Amino acid sequence: xxxxxAPLENDGNLWYEERVIVPPVPAVQFSTEVWNLICEALRKNxxxxxxxxxxxxxxxxxxRVRPYQLxxxxxxxxxxxxxxxxxxxxxxxxxxxxxxxxxxxxxxxxMICKNKRNRKKQRVSx
Length: 126
Description:
The chain has helices at residues 2-5, 32-44; strands at 46-53, 60-73, 76-83, 88-93, 97-106, 110-112, 121-123. By secondary structure, it is mainly beta.
């Protein structure tokens, strides 16, 4: 938190304490099992399987994903992952995930070089 507030301090004056608010917990709750399995999958580069309720469709559908990042935005947590069925990156709202499990399949994490002249994929070492 200090790295966030350091630029706001002015000679020890903590004027920002009532104006910069960071919520202590997400506004939308989800199960600890979802959180724990996502964290384990991120640590071990393991594929996740879960049922997901889309915003636009009724009911749940089975998803298999390669998890990339957990994101916190506007009081809610999201999983940014590669959808194996959809063949692309997707954002999943954690409260819409149920019946989650780790798959036996692992994957190698790639990231795109930021250098515009060198757009090849690079392996991220474990």
